[in-house]
DNA sequence: ACTCAAAGCGGAGGCACCTCCGTTAAAGTG
DNA sequence: CACTTTAACGGAGGTGCCTCCGCTTTGAGT
């Protein structure tokens, strides 16, 4: 809120070296654990494997969502980064469809955190600029482009799209049906196109 | 499935009186607890309040979902029961829209169990004939009617609709935005209508 | 009425979550 | 290099989830 140099509040010390090290180790261990997980991961197990106390884990990541998000955010670039490329190569509606497909594929690889991501997203607990905002911004870019080209509706908010995608990802995460995912994405596209060309 | 008097499988004893009584008490207490809940409800608290051991609760309802579903199912009739009426009074597409609105309103009152319902539905854990099937059947009825009248697409599965509704309900449950719910439902309707009349 | 198989009960126990706070050691200070 | 400050550590502890199993109660058969 207040103006700041971007570092830390005036008078705050730089973070200690061991703190940075521990935080890093935790993210590494968590990334591996989430990737390998078939089920929900034990945070105490992550702390143990990282060689720190459970208290340290919770200081760095006050909630499970915070840890999941830290891992998730690091890999999100590949999804948000391709928007410009897609828009350059494809008309807006096709770009939107392609982007949703990529996002779906990305989410599908995140089974270990799916439950947490879902709960966190829906409840707004995952709401930092680094994740939710980036997704919303990516969608907004494509929507704006499509609205200008009159191939996508102009009265749709980015959050409307994420709401629909959320349901699709959750529903299709349970049953292993890639073709249902595709079908649903096509369905959503039909809803998002300009009704009267 | 098999022919039966409707009681129980051959050779099985009738359930004991105390078991029925406890089961009933648990549902009553749980209904009140879920309705009053702002947060997730403690199952041990429900057992305590019902005057039974935690073991008894878990025997009757092996998972949290089972208990939530038992409460939920009892109140679901008002949603599934109005399909015939809606179809009689309205054209299929309008009936579908109206029905989705009712369902949304119903879900909105279920905040206390929202988290559990969501998780259970997405993971397929809530999958008994008494809930998921009933919703699916309700949607299927309307879709079939609309497909015959050529006002709704014929290539949409009921589960596709539930997937979209799931996302809408979850997203709008976080932020109190009834108008976003309505907008999203309209959006979904556009997707479900027959594209070329 | 009496018997007794088994349906049903309840809580101890193991695990995970998360908080709180006494202790440790990193980074400034003289 | 001592010394001080305090960020950071780590784990004990309280709560909730869920399972397992020895004890109690029910009710069908005689």
Structural class of chain A: mainly alpha
Largest sheet of chain A: none
CATH classification, class level of the largest domain in chain A: Mainly Alpha
- Share of helix among residues of chain A? over 70%
Beta percentage of chain A is under 5%
Unreliable runs of chain A, pLDDT <50, ≥5 residues? 1-9
Based on CA inertia axes, which overall geometry of chain A fits? elongated
Oligomeric state of the chains present here: homodimer
CATH superfamily grouping of the largest domain in chain A? Tetracycline Repressor, domain 2
* SSE arrangement of chain A, N to C: HHHHHHHHHHH
Helical segment count of chain A: 11
**What is the CATH architecture term of the largest domain in chain A?**
Orthogonal Bundle
CATH topology name of the largest domain in chain A, in short, is: Tetracycline Repressor, domain 2
Strands of chain A, count: 0
- Indicate the radius of gyration of chain A in whole angstroms: 19 Å
Distance between the termini of chain A: 45 Å
- Number of separate domains of chain A: 2
Please report the two chains with the greatest interface, counting residues with C-beta closer than 8 angstroms to the partner's C-beta: A-B, 32 and 32 residues
Keywords (chains A, B): DNA-binding, Transcription, Transcription regulation
Organism (chains A, B): Kutzneria viridogrisea
Pfam families (chains A, B): TetR_C_43, TetR_N
InterPro entries (chains A, B): Homeodomain-like_sf, HTH-type_TetR-like_transc_reg, HTH_TetR, Tet_transcr_reg_TetR-rel_C_sf, TetR_SbtR-like_C
